[in-house]
Amino acid sequence: MDLQQIWNQQDPRDDGPLPLRVDMGGSHHPLARLRRALILNIGYGLVVSAAMCLLLIKAEGWPLRLAFTLVTTFCLWAVFGTWRLLTSLDPNVSAEQATLTELRRHHGAFVRWMRAQQRAGWFFYPISAFGGGLWGAVVGADAPVHIVLQKTSLLVVLGLLALIMSPVCAWLARWMFQHAFGNQVDRLQEMIRQLEA
């Protein structure tokens, strides 16, 4: 079928305005999807940070305050790093640079960001597990922190909790990163391979 036949087949009654947005799913470009995922990540990070601030206010005793302060600091650091990555991503690939160079830059920034977040987590996961376990013990015993910490068995349980939960949290964080960002980062890498070919 040639172009003239296609042109002639159009219905003359469809002369109304085109819809403002045809595709309700948004852009399918990996950079656009990664930007949306980063915005969502920032939102979740702010909610978790606010919850940690509330726990910090309610916490009594310096061990709980120290643990919650460190975990809150990690959450805010993660949000700030994510915001910096989001602002460094241009919504459109710049025409001033070669497309391949821009895609490599974005891909490299995402890979560095994901690795930095996961490495920092290895320091904060034991603190988080210890603080959460201690908070649970204090609330469950309805006793002050200094009395709860006098129990040697509790300290052993909190140490084991930190040892067990740290790898579990690291695995869960890696899975969440892969689920939220990995597919789009892989698509970005595939686009780079296609441009290099």
Question: Care to describe what's here?
Answer:
It is a single chain. The chain has 197 residues and is mainly α. Helix content is 78%, strand content 0%. The protein has six helices and no strands. Helix 3 packs antiparallel against helix 4 (99-141). The model is unreliable at 18-24 (pLDDT under 50).
Give a short synopsis of this structure.
The chain is mostly helical.
Write the layout of secondary structure elements.
Blueprint: H1 3-8, H2 30-58, H3 62-88, H4 99-141, H5 145-148, H6 152-196
Helix pairs in contact: 2-3, 2-6, 3-4, 4-6
The count of helical stretches stands at: 6
Secondary structural class: mainly alpha
State the separation between the terminal residues, measured CA to CA: 34 Å
Shape, principal axes of CA atoms = elongated
Mean pLDDT: 84
What's the alpha carbon Rg, rounded to whole Å?
25 Å
Main sheet record:
none
Query: What are the segments in which pLDDT stays under 50 over at least 5 consecutive residues?
Result: 18-24
Give the key terms:
single chain
